[in-house]
């Protein structure tokens, strides 16, 4: 029995060595090239991905994703020790890419793929929501300034006011993002606990 276990271990070690040598050989000596047919299929696949996203108001592909498809197709051809990337490699690259997107780039609110999540960490819909919140906050502060004398405003008080007047559920992170966005516009200055509207010019209040 013990001898049998040793034999199994030797067999597993040999398989691992063989796999390592196989990968090393493919990496160093196989450089597959795209054919005209596989190149056209890659481009048409990328265009199709773009159309699907634009039709639903979502971002589903950037030029970087086309590069990823090409690399995946080339890698699949290397595994086959092939000198060319054929349509089979492209189809497998598309399948792998779709599976990766399902796991990493699905907007939980819509259930749709949005590759912006991969590049920015938030979906296009979330970015629009945050931009809208910044403008809503800006309007609210203008109204406050018109009704009251200018001065420091407590962030906690402002946060509660924004939650009361908006339908969307506003989180503290979203509120803080809106504050930062208005700071970048030089509309306000924020400290840890307060904000103050900039009053050096009227251009920010158009």
From TrEMBL:
GO process annotations (BP): DNA strand elongation involved in DNA replication; double-strand break repair via break-induced replication; mitotic DNA replication initiation
Domain MCM AAA-lid: 17-100
InterPro entries for the chain: MCM, MCM_lid, P-loop_NTPase
Cited SUPFAM superfamilies: P-loop containing nucleoside triphosphate hydrolases
Keywords assigned by UniProt, alphabetized: DNA replication
Gene Ontology MF terms: ATP binding; single-stranded DNA binding; single-stranded DNA helicase activity
Pfam annotation, one family: MCM_lid
Gene Ontology CC, one term: MCM complex
Stated family: Belongs to the MCM family.
Descriptive protein name: MCM AAA-lid domain-containing protein
Native source species: Adineta steineri
